[in-house]
Amino acid sequence: MEQSGKKMIDNLQTAITKYPTSFSNWASSLLNQTIGINELAIVGKNYETVRERTIAKLYTQ
């Protein structure tokens, strides 16, 4: 299923670039496919403190 989605995005790439507002969901998928998604899971007893410190560091740099 992932391969067929990739193929559909590849086939629509020109249209997505030319008419981005008409293909916003496809454009998001193309962006995720091209650049990827970075995800960080913070778990544990002090997750809220660690989350707040992490957010502060990420958005102050």
Q: How would you explain this protein's 3D organization?
A:
It is a single chain. The chain has one domain (2-60). Helices cover 70% and strands 0% of the residues. The model has no long low-confidence stretch (mean pLDDT 84). The radius of gyration is 17 Å and the shape is elongated. The chain contains 3 helices and no strands. Helix 1 packs across helix 2 (24-35). With 61 residues, it is mainly alpha-helical. The chain has helices spanning 2-18, 24-35, 47-60.
Q: Which features characterize this protein?
A:
single chain; 61 residues; mainly alpha; 70% helix; 0% strand; elongated
Given the C-alpha coordinates, what overall shape results?
elongated
Evaluate the radius of gyration. 17 Å
- Give a count of the beta strands, DSSP E runs of length 2 or more: 0
Class from secondary-structure proportions:
mainly alpha
Counted by DSSP, the helix tally is: 3
The overall average pLDDT, rounded, is: 84
Distance between the termini: 38 Å
- How much of the sequence lies in strands comes to under 5%
How many domain units?
A: 1
Q: Ranges with pLDDT <50 over ≥5 residues?
A: none
DSSP helix fraction: over 70%
Reported for the largest beta sheet, the result is: none
Q: What is the string of helix and strand elements?
A: HHH
